[in-house]
Amino acid sequence: MGGVTDALTDLTIAKARALLDRREVSSAELTDAHLARIAAVDDRVHAFLHRMDDVARGQAAEADRRIAAGEAAPLTGIPVALKDVLVTTDAPTTAGSKILAGYRSPYDATVVEKMRAQGAVFVGKTNTDEFAMGSSTENSAYGPTHNPWGDLDRVPGGSSGGSAAAVAAREAMGALGSDTGGSIRQPAGFCGVIGMKPTYGRVSRYGLIAFASSLDQIGPFARTVEDAAIILEAIAGHDPLDSTSLDILVPTYRNVLTGDVRGVRLGVPKEYFVEGMQPEVEAAVRAAIAEFARLGAEIVPISLPYTKYALATYYIIAPAECSANLSRFDGVKYGYSHQAGDLRDSYELTRGEGFGPEVKRRIMLGTYALSSGYYDAYYVKAQKTRTLIKRDFDEAFTDVDAIIAATSPTVAFKIGEKVQDPLAMYLNDVLTIPANMAGIPGISLTCGFKDDLPIALQVLGPALGEEICLRVAHAYEQATPWKERLADL
Amino acid sequence: MAELTLDEVQHVAALAYLRFSTEELDELRDQLDSILEHINQLQEIDTAAIPPTAQVIAVTSVLRDDTVRPSLPTAIALANTPRTEDNFIEVDAVLEGS
Prior knowledge:
The structure holds two protein chains of two kinds.
Chain A: H1 3-10, H2 13-21, H3 27-45, E1 48-51, H4 53-68, E2 79-83, H5 110-118, E3 121-126, H6 161-168, E4 174-179, H7 185-191, E5 194-197, E6 217-222, H8 225-235, E7 265-269, H9 279-294, E8 298-302, H10 310-325, H11 343-354, H12 357-370, H13 375-396, E9 402-406, H14 422-427, H15 433-438, E10 442-450, E11 453-460, H16 466-479
Parallel strand pairs in A: 2-3, 2-4, 7-8, 7-9
Antiparallel strand pairs in A: 1-3, 4-6, 5-6, 5-10, 9-11, 10-11
Chain B: H1 6-15, H2 22-39, H3 74-77, E1 84-85, E2 88-89
Antiparallel strand pairs in B: 1-2
């Protein structure tokens, strides 16, 4: 691969935009460089489930015409990747599951439509834990994704591991993922890129294959905070097709990236320095806190006392919602179908053969929590605890502007290390789950390295506080060298 | 709370329309037990006076005008359907003797 091609795939979206608009590079060139990069590295990374080379070339040609006409939008001609839980008309959508092998959606997700309207270029659909259930992308029915950092023997995190790895490996300039309990922030952290979970309701979920409907939210991956802001701006906003999307004006997120955090009150919750946190992770987060103080932010020790119950609460609410959402996969309307001649046999064999072990485990857990005799003890109890977790944040945000904490207690673990122990795998999300419970936004960014593996910090804001999250993350990013370091691949 | 019995796991599997082998049921029981043990720590919280949260946004009862608009053509809507007859989805008999 030539030096020019490498240079094109290393660009940020903001820099590529300037080059495209000045006609110094075409979208066709930019797209070809990314398709060549995918061809060169994805047999090792396996970020993609479906490549969209032909679609991408067509979109690039159209983007070049649009740019020539002086009608470029911020994402016109920019190569991006889509998590394979977002339905698309021009590529298969499998959600990483055998039960949707070969499924072709008759419509586009709203976020896909919005990206199309901007003239973005889709290079492919990315790997995910089956139905977004997992923290390592190892639950994909199509094989794991490899973290581009280190020796390629680590997980990229999950469930949006393919999107995180694709951006880290410079196979795409940005990507979309979904975050139900950390599925954007944790893989972004593990792969050394930016990942943002917006406020629940900020982005339409229409066309996102549902996991847990009260928690799911779509958000961007990118290599800089500015690029994440550009993508978020493109996908946010009200959608009549999702009645939980908020009818509130979308700000120009890039305008808040001032680099100035003087006087911003940043809460540091003591509960987020959890038992089992790697010392290097704690040291990097504490160094980041010191950096924020140096930049003029006020550091405020806070307490979120119900944090320790968030994981247990999540593992009732999310499986309960998933058991209802996944009842639609019955082998009758679409997807894998085992025709047994008897309705119950057909249902049970279709679902038994079509779903993987983790999905079945969560359907079982959720069905149990909702079943007669256990509903109050589990499901209602969890909903009440959710209230307490949300109140913790409500109270904290009366005093602080944003909260900073580690994204995950550890750096990326080895492929295979935790697959036999579901609870150990779940514990990985202990620091990301509370934000989903409260519906608040959070952004993850690199704050150091343990050997060659990224360590990440998350900035959490109050509901609809995307601007403060972006501003705080951007100020830290500008003051530190981490974004210059790229996975060596 | 008591540990799950195999019968309970089988009952939940039937509710969820999932079929497992005996070995899978056994393994699943152990895994669910370990997860439920973690989950049971919620019982130590006093939530008697706490209202439940089903969703976090203040939006309720979103209505739209009931107007006619185009929908998916039948052929496209049924393109992924395993068994169709004319413009219908074909299913196994639901009622005995039908």
